[in-house]
UniProtKB/TrEMBL annotation:
Species per Swiss-Prot/TrEMBL record: Elysia crispata
GO molecular function terms attached to this record: DNA binding
Ranges of biased composition (kind: Acidic residues): 285-305
GO BP, sorted A to Z: DNA integration; DNA recombination
Name of the protein in question: Uncharacterized protein
Residue numbers spanned by region Disordered: 285-313
Length: 351
């Protein structure tokens, strides 16, 4: 069919030209309304209220423990696949990126990773300086020919050096330029196949979601709970090998816990007429205690009020001082005092 299309195009077939013009008009006029928009809406509807499942940390730990045992193997195949999986899993790289690392990339990366400017260390903490000594860094080619960094633990570097030594000792020796070349030497081991094999052997809860794509989504999603800055988000996206917009819209999944915890706190605050600030958001804790029942004893209320006031705003501290000074307020919480003062001030303003 394609050969027929090519030959007719070269002959300047008028019938084919008219068909192409009709298709172009239909495509430009109706495609977006009838096909593209409808397909997009169907995809979004299918994603609504659908559980967004990423690999659990406990399953990742299981695989890490298994890999720690495997990298001690003496045979080439087990050592190569375990090291490949260990580096990919630790760095959350795409399945095919680490498997395509070449030997020259590894050696060149180690040479370039030597710190030549001691002044770079002056602004680092002692922990960060120790991490620099513990990790090596190389660059690999990622998607869209982007250069992406890969961090190597000391154990990973040692395992790679053992792989290179075994390649020489094998008969016949492996001549492939790829670092993780298979025993046949034609192609490298496939990252997705390797992680599927080890996930099954480690006994993860759900092997179908233990993929490199889902693992990348997991680190992008859980990083939200760390409240990292925009600069740190951009740095993480660059390390993972994609644009920050892709990081936020595709990889970083909405967290139901964050919506119910953080966003609910903001909504409760604004609906109570409280100015949004880090200090005032603590007032919501007292509001939730009141909504949960309010059946606790006066002594428990005093303890809760004292604890909350210590951590909350200056308004709460002033209310606590008033409770301590006035015997008549001993059975009141700091929120009761604050609400009374607020009502009194509001009443005087309208006089």
């Amino acid at each position: 069919m394609w050969e027929d299309f090519t030959s007719r195009s070269k002959k300047k077939d008028d019938g084919l030209r008219k068909q192409a013009e009709v298709f172009e008009r239909l495509f430009s006029g109706d495609w977006c309304d009838y096909i593209s928009a409808t397909a997009g809406q169907s995809i979004h509807r299918a994603r609504q209220n659908k559980p967004r499942v990423v690999p659990a940390c406990v399953d990742i730990e299981k695989v890490h423990h298994l890999l720690e045992e495997k990298v001690g193997a003496k045979d080439y195949a087990t050592l190569g696949k375990a090291t490949l999986c260990s580096i990919s899993l630790f760095n959350r790289k795409r399945g095919g990126e680490v498997q395509r690392i070449k030997i020259e990339d590894f050696h060149r990366g180690l040479k370039c990773g030597v710190l030549t400017n001691p002044e770079m260390l002056q602004g680092l903490t002692e922990t960060e300086k120790k991490l620099i000594n513990h990790f090596s860094r190389i660059e690999i080619r990622g998607k869209f020919n982007r250069n992406g960094p890969v961090l190597l633990k000391a154990q990973m570097t040692h395992s790679i050096q053992r792989i290179l030594q075994l390649r020489i000792e094998l008969q016949p020796p492996i001549e492939s330029p790829y670092l993780f070349a298979s025993r046949s030497g034609e192609r490298p081991y496939r990252g997705p196949d390797v992680i599927e094999e080890y996930a099954k052997e480690a006994g993860v809860t759900d092997g179908s979601i233990f993929t490199f794509t889902q693992l990348r989504k997991q680190v992008a999603t859980l990083s939200q709970t760390l409240h990292i800055s925009k600069w740190e988000q951009d740095q993480l996206a660059t390390f993972l090998g994609h644009d920050i917009r892709v990081h936020r819209s595709v990889y970083r999944q909405p967290i139901e816990v964050m919506d119910r915890a953080e966003l609910a706190k903001i909504l409760l605050s604004v609906n109570k007429g409280i100015t949004i600030s880090k200090e005032n958001l603590g007032v919501v804790d007292e509001e939730l205690d009141d909504e949960d029942g309010g059946n606790s004893s006066d002594e428990e209320n005093d303890i809760d009020a004292t604890t909350d006031a210590t951590a909350d705003s200056d308004t709460a501290n002033e209310a606590l001082k008033a409770i301590q000074m006035e015997h008549a307020l001993q059975n009141r919480t700091w929120k009761n005092v604050k609400d009374f003062v607020y009502s009194l001030v509001k009443k005087n303003r309208h006089k």
